[in-house]
Amino acid sequence: MAEMEKKPVPTPHIAAREGEIAETILLPGDPLRAKFIAETFFSDPKQFNSTRNMFGYTGTYQGKRISVMGTGMGCASMGIYSYELINFYGCKNLIRIGTAGAMVPEVHVRDLVFGMGACSTSNYARLFNLPGDYSLIANFDLLRKGVEAAEKRNLTYHVGNILSSDMFYNPDMPKTGVSFDRMGVLAVEMESAALYSNAAYGGARALTMLTISDSLVTGEATSAEERQTSFTDMMEVALDVASTL
Ligand code: HPA
After folding, report:
1. How far is the CA of 168 from the centre of ligand 1 (A)?
2. Which residues contact residue 144 at a Cβ distance below 8 angstroms, ignoring those fewer than 6 apart?
3. Which of 26, 123, 157, 160 has a beta carbon 3.0–4.6 Å from 150's, enabling a disulfide?
């Protein structure tokens, strides 16, 4: 493999200087969630980015230096930020914390889903031009630690395949061929295929954990308050994992 050249920082998208971002970073889609996590859980948080309002912070949690930054929505946005974090800033452990829609009846709103693998309708992974289909998977050590933390906190969780879709407003979940839920895919979100691709390419470790905000099966949705509570539970699971790395 070609030697990865050292990339210059700051980048057009992240204003941090070298060394300002920790090796372990939590990645919510919403930058205001990054701000909330930094202000709620970190001691001595320092903001390292506000370019495009994609807020990023580094602080300390249970003695461990951890960063948090928003990624925006979709594989294109996650693709840019995670690539730069891994290849420009040297991030080694990237934990996405997001929301998703349930695709199967056994997954309910407020449940936690760990993305052991990521299927996708996005073209992101194909653009690496591999000579076949690459299996986009989570790092096993992060996944194992996530499951242990969820069990310790008595949360309802599922582990399996998720779908990173490029389309939120899908007018026609596939009517021809086999659908992803028929293949056991648990939930739909929009970013993990890019995260898992970039982690594989850059030799980093990645995990997606998702709280279910709505169900495509039952039409059930969470209230804003329920969403916040289940999201906060998930933040704590992610911080449990991050603090052991
Ligand atoms: N589709 C895609 N992403 C999502 C959804 C959904 O239904 N719910 C939460 N994130």
Report:
1. 6
2. none
3. 157
Answer yes or no: are the C-beta atoms of 41 and 5 closer than 8 Å: no
Catalytic residue (choose from 111, 181, 214, 240): 214
In a domain, 17, yes or no: no
The CATH number assigned to the domain holding 113 equals 3.40.50.1580
Q: How many residues does the chain have?
A: 245
Residue 172 designated active-site = no
pLDDT, one tens digit per residue, over 38-90 is 999 999 999 999 999 999 999 999 999 999 999 999 999 999 999 999 999 99
Q: CA torsion sign, 15 to 19 to 20 to 22?
A: positive
Burial-class residue 13 by CB neighbours within 10 Å (0-12, 13-18, 19+). Answer: middle
The reply to whether 6 falls in a domain is: no
The domain in which residue 132 lies consists of 24-242
User: Under DSSP, is residue 26 helix (H, G, I), strand (E, B) or coil?
Assistant: strand
Residue from 96, 104, 181, 213 whose mutation best tests the ligand 1 pocket (most atoms within 8 A of CB) = 213
3-state helix, strand, coil in the chain (%, to 5): 30, 25, 40
Separation of CA 138 and ligand 1 centre (Å): 19
